[in-house]
Design a protein that fits this description.
heterodimer; A: about 400 residues; alpha+beta; three-stranded antiparallel β-sheet; 15 helices; 8 strands; B: about 210 residues; alpha/beta; five-stranded mixed β-sheet; about 20% helix
Chain lengths: ~400, ~210
Amino acid sequence: MSLAVETPPKNYELLPKDSCDGAVEGDLLEVSMGPQHPSTHGVFRMNVVLDGERVVKLKPVFGYLHRNHEKIAENTSYLGSMPYTDRLDYFCSLTNNWAYAMAVEKLAGLQPPERAEYIRVITAELTRLQNHTCLVGFLMQDMGASGTPLMYAFREREKILDLFESLTGARMMCNYMRFGGCRCDLPPGWIEGARQVADEYPRFLDEFERLLSENEILLARTQGVGVLPRELAVNSSVTGPMLRASGVNYDIRKVDKYGIYDRFSFRVPLGEQGDTFDRYMIRLLEMRESLKILRAALDDIPPGPIMDPKVKIRGFRPKPGEAYGRIEAPKGELGFYLISDGSPNPYRYRVRPPSLINLTILEDMCLGHIVADVVVILGSVDIVLGEVDR
Amino acid sequence: MENLDQIKSRIESAVSGARIEIVRNDSPSAQHSLLVDNDHAVAIAGFLRGDPQLQFDYCSNVTGVDWPDAETSEKVKVKKVVDGVEKEVEEVKKTIRPGFLEAVYHLYSMELKHGPVILRLRTENRTDKNHLPSLTPIWRGAEFQEREIFDLFGIIFGGHPDLRRILMWDEYKDHPMRKDYVEPDDYEYEPTPHDEVLEKTKRHHPEGATT
């Protein structure tokens, strides 16, 4: 076996101030960005060491929103954790629900009915649309385009949140899916409403792209900034749009074909450079592919039950064993790892948070850039602190 | 993808001295795992990543599991002399499985798009021999997740480049995800004078109750 084991770069120790080549003593400045900084998307902190305005070292600091979600889930029933998964990535509660439901379904060997699978795909793609739209809005806000792009994004997001509200009763904390199906059926007129949103969305995307994509400031601030090489992305377990922006063709909807994703034809957009502009563009392209899936699913959705009637979701006791279920959430691979010992509570409950793991390479992307670029690079990673800190 | 038995035998022929055991999983997910010995774990991980037919270049999920001492009891029939007569008496035989901490790695291949293969590493016990080799040199994606295991379970990963607490603060003493974890009476350095906090403190330290 001849495999050269790569060691991670050795930039973990803070350099003594006088050992920096050619630098005058006292030249390096240590700045703590966050946790109250508005550009860190929540209570996230970065300890940045600066040489002038260049970043020499960057250490992320987590835990300000830590409430030990996993321990709480181990002390409650399987069903009891479902509403709490909404609070992980509070932008995408429906995909969180799906990932958890899928892990439990793998653990207990359940198969949701056909109609429920369609509803899951529809709601997941709507979630992806509003997540990516907002992300672009936030990214522009970080870049200094105050207000307009974010408000345009929020205007479209409202329409999707209204759909969620009429379906689940809640705009963000949906608590909608159950192991073995979904909680309630679509209300009358919902499909037409969703179809209208899907039909009007491309016009908004065109407008958004005309407004932003060729903007000189956006190009100057994003192209060649925060390049993530392909090998590093794979080795660091980066997933989701960030990985595909680096040119790796890995979409779990295509790889695992979970649910009914093998019935839809859609393409996986890939980036070439792996810079911030690619990460921005991938999201816009992915939204168009999501719309394709959404329209096909809305056309094909069959009538029928939405819940497997044999599943006892209250007093649910799966047989001893373990399962890992994962889906392609808007931010990356969201996985749930469950161990059952036959009791009503999971023995071990683990969330694989894509936001946290995508931050592994934050330092590598930021080194050598100026502080203002750090804000933009972090914005393009797409983190939600509810999921990073759990 | 090759099945788990083939992978096991190929690892054993490639990494000399490796001891591997297949841990069965009876649930419908049927995700069986490989229990790997700690001395060869890094070499095995390197083989799994580098082998052209496997190419597990993507370490998706790393997590810890706490298994405290478990008592299993089974009924055994023993022959005994009772009142001068030999009788068959049922006795409960208790065996104690010593506790350990476990690290679980879920591996996938982005190149060949298969997986998962699940690796398990076990510590000798839960108190002083809680060391495991770190697989971060092979997959950097394990860096934050191993730090999280160190923080919440107390497994010490040898060879990890930056093993610090990640979610709890640095001064924190205990490991919250362990099954026998007791929540501190008060998160302040000194108990704040609230009745319920003082009550809890008295329960845990009856002799030295502070004001």
